[in-house]
Design goal:
With 328 residues, this protein is of the alpha/beta class. The chain is 33% helix and 25% strand.
Length: 328
């Protein structure tokens, strides 16, 4: 049975592993110890066990507390005190954010607040320079990886403005993307691939003839965004960053895209949903909402925060922009 930490307690992490802790309390530490601290004497442990004698699951409680204090929740995308610049201009200034798998986090903010910059940095855009801070994905340093390696590890970015790829059909594009994620020498079975493709298209309400069209060539805004969600469905990443998926969509297209995202929600996928407007959140209900202003996270809360923001506007959020606020 999985523990609250997301892995089996019998597994010992590698010596010297860098692991993030919870809620901003010394999130990064070199851990060269096993699950029980050597500093704790046998006598002390014995006294604790004696006091808890007769208590159901006494030993598991001690082990659970020890585990939780020493090892973090590994299944999360963790941004810690991130500073990002382009040229001489600093855009993201000390931003911290956690997106565990199984949760949907909405990131809202006015134009120029740094939301899309954050998305591009996570994906590895070369024009942006990280001056300080860390980004961990399941405990691994994301900033040390090339963009293609980040994708193979399970990070997905849905673009605000998807590019056209003339001459390459959606079917061939997706097949090449899936093949690139397989171990060297392993071939993707055509029958398995098309079975999965048609299954996902049916889930998203897409006609099969769609796959014979060139990627995004001559597509409407809604078709481009549906293609992005189809890619998400096929690649099955661990984390998806959806950069203004609602941009340029009418209400019908918005509902269709939202249905696609909702159909993919589950315990193995963490979603960071970037948007300007609350209307998207009427159809994709987030677990948490964060407000970003001037490169900082200024407010965080449950889904009701989006409604308050819609009513009071970003001027209200800007009032808290002087001091950065940690998420959650």
């Amino acid at each position: 049975m999985a523990t609250p930490l997301g892995f089996e307690p019998r597994i010992t992490p590698p010596k010297g592993a860098v692991l993030p802790l919870h809620h901003g309390v010394s999130r990064f530490a070199i851990l060269d110890r096993r699950f029980s601290s050597k500093a704790q004497s046998t006598k002390t442990r014995g006294q604790r066990l004696h006091r808890m004698k007769g208590t159901p699951n006494a030993c598991s409680q001690i082990l659970g507390n020890s585990l939780y204090s020493q090892f973090p929740l590994m299944k999360e995308l963790n941004v810690e005190k991130l500073h990002v610049s382009i040229g001489d201009q600093e855009i993201v200034r000390g931003l911290s954010l956690r997106v565990p798998r199984g949760e949907v986090h909405a990131l809202m903010g006015p134009n120029g607040s740094g939301k899309s910059t954050l998305a591009k940095v996570l994906a590895g855009h070369p024009d942006y320079r990280v001056t300080s801070g860390k980004v961990l994905m399941d405990g691994e340093d994301l900033l040390e990886l090339e963009p293609d390696e980040r994708a193979r590890r399970g990070l997905f970015l849905a673009f605000q403005y998807p590019s056209e790829v003339p001459g390459v059909t959606i079917a061939n594009f997706l097949r090449a993307a899936m093949q690139s994620r397989l171990p060297e020498g392993e071939e993707l079975e055509a029958t398995d691939y098309y079975a999965k493709l048609y299954e996902k298209m049916e889930l998203l309400g897409m006609d099969r003839s769609f796959t014979s069209r060139a990627v995004n060539e001559g597509f409407s805004g809604g078709e481009k965004k549906r293609t992005e969600i189809l890619q998400l469905a096929m690649l099955e990443p661990k984390y998806a960053v959806l950069d203004e998926t609602d941009s340029g969509l009418d209400i019908d297209a918005l509902k269709t895209v939202a249905h696609g995202v909702n159909s993919l929600r589950g315990p193995d996928l963490g979603i960071l949903l970037i948007t300007h407007y609350q209307r998207l959140l009427n159809y994709i209900i987030p677990d948490y909402v964060h407000v970003m202003v001037a490169g900082r996270m200024v407010r965080s809360g449950r889904k009701e925060l989006a409604l308050e923001l819609e009513e009071r506007g970003y001027d209200w959020a800007r009032e808290g922009a002087v001091e950065p606020a940690f998420t959650r």
